[in-house]
Write a structure and sequence with these properties.
21 helices, alpha/beta, flat
């Protein structure tokens, strides 16, 4: 073959090679573009599915709200039917139980006919009443606080938390509150609230004798309303001294007015406040002072010329629940500071101790909207991010490996402040960081903490004198350890929340040997108190820091185990109350 032909053939081959190479490059480019498009479509699909799931959740929540609202409106319509004599109390009671047991299906059934007149609605109720029902208790709280409507202390959180937990387990719960002022009771979603009118007593500051007069009037008005509305609750649940007079009023005046099947339960958040009054004041609410001013009834154990209102609640209730995280029944009875020991001893068989819970839907690190990154016992990576975010917010050195100790408190004594100084000086030299947040509810405490901060002047310590709900979430999530003035924290519930957020709760004054004896190993101790004693009692801060530094695997195991424990309102607290309701219904 001639050289020209060879050269031409070589050129053709090279041309074909270049064309093939270009085709390969083009196909690769198309393949990459196709893969990118496929990935984009896949991402859009995932995003769309997530959006659909989010919308479904929102729809479910809104639907649930609508159903609860319809059920609450139905209960109000039934009250109106009784008050207008359209139906009797017995039929009204049956309708209420029907709604209690069928609050989902009945809402679907009645959602389109709520605009009808009472007579037409009554026909539908009677038609629906043939449906099968499950069992559940009808509980009416008569109380002076309920979060977030009127929230002063631990009672408000307890009433709302317990009521919601009971409701989730199929019980009908109603709450009767004083109408202190114009209140939006719809804020407490899903619960029946009735506000008793008495502006003349509660619209503004209360002073002196008006306190007792106002609450006794409220107690009497609540019972009057229950009778006139034809309600026949299984349990009338009263709280602290403020509504304890309901006990003698119920048994001496109201029990034979259609309430023969109702029983009384008293809850005491504390035994310190008892209300001691002149016997003749009992007549203001329709009671017989002479018949009740006896040692086995209302006569005060120390001041025999007076009557004790809280004692009335203990004596006239079928069960008495005392809220305490750590104490046992025996320790409460044997206390020497309250003056009710003889009464509690006589009525010890009706006493029950229950630990408070906390709102696990609002305090859950796996879904907490206040955290920069969520985490759970199964995946703790987000906790380090929360710590760094907290350090950044406070102007501390940003490093996840630095031990951070938090403390959220409503009260700290002078002795505890002195102990704090020693703890901080010792731990700060080891590079430990501290953040303190006060609730601002105790007069003079913020000033004391300001002096403390000025005296300390430690670069690793920050003081936050104003309680901030959002920041409290971050403090719990960013802390390795939470210093707690007490494990019996019924207001801020810091020990409960600390365990949920993976921070070890440590007693601020852990050197006090009394802490080793406040939990007896007897049948009266709660699961919570037993767990805390086994894992966190009498562990000084220095020991906790050593364990975190030197034995992280043991630390992590303990923390994860605490995070998985359920100490919410729905758990032990609710179970104890349901058992108590069952016990008094069987009396």
């Amino acid at each position: 073959m001639r050289s020209g032909e060879l050269e031409e053939k070589g050129t053709d081959i090279w041309k074909l090679f270049r064309e093939a190479q270009q085709n390969i490059l083009y196909l690769n480019k198309q393949r990459i573009m196709a893969k990118e498009e496929l990935d984009r479509v896949k991402r859009e699909k995932i995003s769309l599915l997530d959006r659909i799931e989010q919308l479904e959740r929102t729809k479910l929540i809104n639907t649930r709200k609508d159903k609860f609202s319809i059920s609450a409106e139905l209960l109000l319509r039934i009250d109106a039917m009784v008050l207008t004599s359209l139906i009797g109390s017995k039929e009204a009671s049956e309708f209420r139980r029907l709604i209690m047991d069928s609050n989902v299906s009945i809402a679907d059934y009645f959602s389109e006919i709520m605009h009808k007149q009472d007579t037409e609605l009554l026909v539908e109720l009677r038609h629906f009443s043939g449906k099968s029902r499950k069992s559940g208790y009808h509980v009416i709280h008569v109380c002076t606080e309920m979060a977030p409507v009127v929230s002063v202390g631990s009672l408000a959180l307890y009433v709302t938390g317990l009521s919601r937990a009971l409701q989730r387990k199929g019980h009908l719960v109603e709450v009767i509150l004083p109408k202190y002022a114009s209140l939006n009771l719809n804020e407490v979603h899903g619960l029946r609230e009735v506000d008793a009118e008495f502006h003349s007593y509660f619209n503004g500051q209360l002073h002196g004798n008006r306190i007792w007069t106002g609450f006794s009037y409220f107690s009497r008005a609540s019972l009057d309303y229950i009778v006139k509305a034809g309600k026949q609750p299984d349990v009338l649940h009263i709280h602290n001294w403020e509504t304890s007079i309901v006990g003698p009023l119920f048994w001496d005046v109201f029990v034979n007015q259609g309430l023969e099947g109702t029983r009384i339960m008293l809850t005491c958040q504390s035994l310190e406040s008892q209300c001691v009054e002149q016997p003749e004041k009992l007549a203001l609410c329709g009671l017989d002072p002479h018949g009740l001013h006896r040692s086995d009834r209302l006569q005060d154990n120390h001041k025999s010329h007076l009557v004790n209102v809280l004692k009335a609640g203990v004596v006239y209730s079928n069960k008495v629940i005392i809220m305490s995280s750590m104490q046992t029944k025996g320790q409460i009875i044997n206390a020497t500071i309250h003056g009710l020991e003889p009464t509690l001893t006589i009525h010890k068989d009706k006493l029950v101790v229950a630990p408070p819970g906390f709102d696990s839907s609002a305090w859950d690190p796996s879904v907490d909207k206040f955290l920069p990154q969520n985490y759970s016992a199964d995946n703790m990576k987000g906790k380090s991010a929360c710590k760094v975010s907290l350090q950044q917010h406070l102007g501390l050195q940003e490093q996840a490996s630095i031990i951070l100790v938090g403390c959220i408190f409503s009260y700290i004594s002078d002795i505890e402040l002195e102990n704090l100084k020693t703890l901080i000086w010792m731990a700060s030299r080891r590079g430990v960081q501290f953040v303190f947040m006060g609730s601002g509810q105790t007069p003079g405490l913020n000033t004391a903490m300001e002096y403390f901060e000025e005296e300390l002047k430690d670069e690793n310590t920050r003081f936050l004198n104003k309680y901030d709900e959002a920041l409290a979430h971050l403090v719990l999530a960013g802390s390795d350890i939470m210093l707690c003035p007490s494990f019996d924290d019924t207001v801020l519930q810091v020990p409960l929340k600390a365990m949920r957020y993976g921070a070890m709760p440590i007693l601020l004054n852990s050197t006090d040997r009394k802490s080793g004896h406040f939990v007896d190993r007897d049948l009266e101790g709660s699961k919570f108190s037993g767990y805390v004693k086994d894992n966190f009692t009498n562990i000084p801060l220095s020991q906790a820091i050593d364990e975190l530094k030197n034995n992280p695997s043991k630390w992590d195991k303990k923390i994860v185990d605490a995070m998985t424990k359920d100490f919410s309102w729905d758990a032990e607290c609710c179970d104890i109350h349901i058992s108590a309701y069952a016990a008094i219904k069987n009396l």
